[in-house]
What does this fold into?
Amino acid sequence: MKKLLSASLMCADLTQLKNSVCELEKAGIDLLHLDIMDGSFVPNITLGFDLVNAVKSITDIPLDVHMMVNQPSRFIDMMKLDENDYLCVHYESDIHIHRTLEQIRSKGIKTGLALNPQTPLESMEYLTDYMDMALVMTVSPGFAGQKLFAGAERKTKHARELLDSLGCSHIPIEVDGNISPGNGRKLSACGADIFVLGTSSLFIKDKDMKQAADEFRAAL
Ligand code: DX5
Ligand code: ZN
It folds into this structure.
């Protein structure tokens, strides 16, 4: 599977977002990761639906929307996404997460099931028919600049093994949180396919994004 880079826009300079998106296009970034937080499912509030729709209107890079909100099913209709985009929801965030995944699919959008560090991998087992991606959190979600959790490599490896054993080798694994070039290399070896790039790799003061993206790709 081709390895993809997903740029975490919460780490971009929000006063210069359009310029950043242009730079990310030039850097050959594959996906734009947008973190939506509600201050309840996670202890922070970041980007919202208007921003998702605004970004969608200025770029052809597919979006990778990561909802860290309680009952995300309430908000799916508020985003103008299409078949090129991913909409990821957390296993614990809706009581009937299967229904939420179906709701996303019914709109023609690709689904992702996100797992917190402590969420058992088995939570995916009966949902793979409704999944286009597995998002393995490598930090507890909520903030940029955190440290990789100790089980991240084992969990990514076991996620790949579980998906393969279920006949789901086509489902990519995305890793999110502290994805530095070094951690990216290790997690790639464990079977990660999509890398969320934030302050650990892509958005670094005085560093060109294309150079940072090229260095990350070279590290994989
Ligand atoms: C949370 C976010 C963060 C962040 C990643 O869902 O996606 O994990 O943007 O960037 P760093 O490299 O700061 O952890
Ligand atoms: Zn995220």
